[in-house]
Amino acid sequence: MRCEQVCPTDVFRSFKVEDSEMERIAVEEGLQTLHPEFGTRPRVYYKNLDWFTKHFIGGTLVSEADGISTAVSGVAVRLEKDGVEMQATQTDQYGDFKFDGLEDHSGRYTVQYDSPGQGRCETSFEFNESVYLGIFSLSDVP
Fold first, then answer.
1. H/E element holding 2?
2. Calpha distance 72→85 (Å, rounded)
């Protein structure tokens, strides 16, 4: 396949394998097909398809001292719906967190994190589509 040969980032791969082997590869690498519910037996598989077909919730955690905001990494952040934990992650080196794979208009969610000074902090909202919640300061009063 020409596009596979010339792609500098190696995003394209082609296989000539049995269906059972392709199923194994898809499970192992987290690959998905577009609209499997149509039953068309597609031959194109996508990695991270949810990034384009589903929605996300994101935000940033910072600490503030002397008027300077600093990203806070390694803070556990949880996403709950109806009191049940749906996903959990940690803030990255930029203080960012993100929850992927959410359906639009899927109800009320709560994002929680633990602040060393204030204990558990949370924000609840009605989720309609992808949203960046903004910057949360660990020094803010919830």
1. helix 2-6
2. 22
For β-strands 119-127 and 76-81, DSSP reports them as unpaired
What letter represents residue 21's amino acid?
A: E
pLDDT digits 0-9 by tens, 88-132: 999 999 999 999 999 888 899 999 998 766 667 889 999 999 999
Closest CA to 136 of 93, 96, 79: 96
User: How many other C-beta atoms are found inside a 10 Å radius of the C-beta of residue 3?
Assistant: 9
116-136 exposure pattern, b = at least 16 Cβ within 10 A, e = fewer: eeeeebeeeeebeeeeeeeeb
Report the C-alpha gap between 55 and 98 in whole angstroms.
10
**For 35-79, how does the pLDDT look when each residue is reduced to its tens digit (9 = 90+)?**
888 988 888 888 888 888 899 999 999 988 888 889 999 999 999
Q: What is the DSSP letter of 40?
A: -
Strands (E), 25-92: 31-32, 46-47, 55-65, 68-71, 76-81, 84-90
The domains of the chain, with CATH numbers, are 2-51 (3.30.70.20), 55-137 (2.60.40.10)
